Amino acid sequence: MTSPHPAARTHGTLGVVQGTALYIASVLGTGLLVLPGLAAEAAGPASIVAVIAVIGLSIPLAGTFAVLAARYPDPGGVASYVRRALGGTAARMTGYWFMFGVCAGAPVVAVLGGEYVVAVAGIDRAMVPVIASAILVPPFAANAFGVRVAGWVQFVLTALLLAVVVGVVSLAAPAVEPQNFQPFLPNGWAGVGTAISLFVWAFAGWEVGTHISGEFRNPRRAIPIGTAIALVVTGLCYLVLQIVTVGALGAAAGDGAVPLLELARLGSPGLGAAAVGIIAGIVALGVMNAYLAAFAKLAASLAVNRDLPRWFSAGAEAGGVPRRALALIGAVVLVYFSLVLLSGLELTPFILVHTSSMVAIYAVGMVAAVRLLRRGTAGWWMAVLAAVLCAGMLVLAIGSLLPAVVLALAAVIVTVVRRLRRGRAAQPQDADAEVKTAPDALVGAGRTSALEAGAPRADVTGAD
After folding, report:
1. For residue 205, what are the contacts with CB-CB under 8 A and spacing of at least 6?
2. Is the model's pTM score more than 0.90?
3. DSSP, res 445
4. Which DSSP string corresponds to 314-333?
5. Could you give the domains of the chain?
6. Taking CA 330 as the corner, what is the angle to CA 283 and CA 325, rounded to the nearest 5 degrees?
7. Rounded to the nearest 5 degrees, what angle is found at the Cα of 290, between the Cα atoms of 214 and 210?
8. How far is CA 110 from the centre of its chain?
9. Averaged in consecutive runs of 10 residues, what is the pLDDT profile of the chain (464 residues)?
């Protein structure tokens, strides 16, 4: 097992405030706009129980990632942990899932933001691609100046988001009626199970911080604090929003596509649409900004390990700005965005690519954590519990895992090609080379030929 990177060796610039803002944004995403209504439709008032359950389930997952990030601050994030525990091929799979699978969610976030802005502002839907493009550009620009700038941008976006959410909830709270919480279980416990599965995706995003862990000034202190604050803030936001959604809207909570808009209208009809439009734009910008910081650092780290061309490795070091890797991410996002436009803004296929890759990353990442962390410690027990939960998520997502399987096969093919190349390089190139090695066999029984001594041993290096 490789020894951890001491925190003292990192030279990042992020503090607790910026890091916490990035964590909150990566979790408090576009689900804020739609999930309260969907969960209320599935479970009624008992959807509140579902939120509480998922907050509890998030603790071991977020805690495990926090322990790993603080102990092994590395831009490769989960892929680096997997490399340490399971080898190069598994690490390459993990990196490809994040780079080329999770990345499919970027245009989805931008288009969702555009859809909400168009809906609440009464603009022609033909403007959605234009607004989505406008949402994509600022996060790339912020990250081009480095994660420190992106961190402060994220702090501002997160503060605005929380302020608007608190304002909407405060305005709608007087409309809460006790009778709207009856019957509490209109669809039984099966409905609660459905609501839990919905909110599991809302609380995804804890892995993002692992990729920027090396950018913290003091990872061992800042990462656990940032994770704990983000858990409390995001949990309270979803819980309070769910209570107010059910209590104020009652049976109509699941009727509209944007329950937050209905809540805003209850408190202030004139400002409701504008408030939700602001939230949609802030959420989309914030999620994109947080994920791009992680994507760029991961791509540079993959290039360092030759899982991507080495040219993209610039900026992988702590404090570095991975602009080449960011440009690669831009190209990947542009391809996905073009496909979204060609599909007529049909988002389901791209959401499936994103979610299947995320589930695979979590499952493999928790297995790696169980192997890396010291047995019997709090972090190890959290990893064991999270691994069991992720196995259950993997079973639930079995029908949409084809994209993840394809990317895993691509990683295996890279390994096979590398080994074939090494095998050819280890063989004599011509007859003269074979003649030159012959005397080595006569030197002594204990000597190994120069050819054998210098041959690469891919089976023991762990590189693949």
Report:
1. 23, 26, 27, 29, 290
2. no
3. T
4. TT-STT---HHHHHHHHHHH
5. 7-421 (1.20.1740.10), 427-461 (no CATH)
6. 110
7. 35
8. 16
9. 42 70 71 74 84 84 85 77 89 89 85 79 84 86 67 68 77 81 80 75 68 73 84 87 83 64 68 67 74 80 84 78 87 92 84 80 90 89 88 74 87 87 69 43 37 34 48
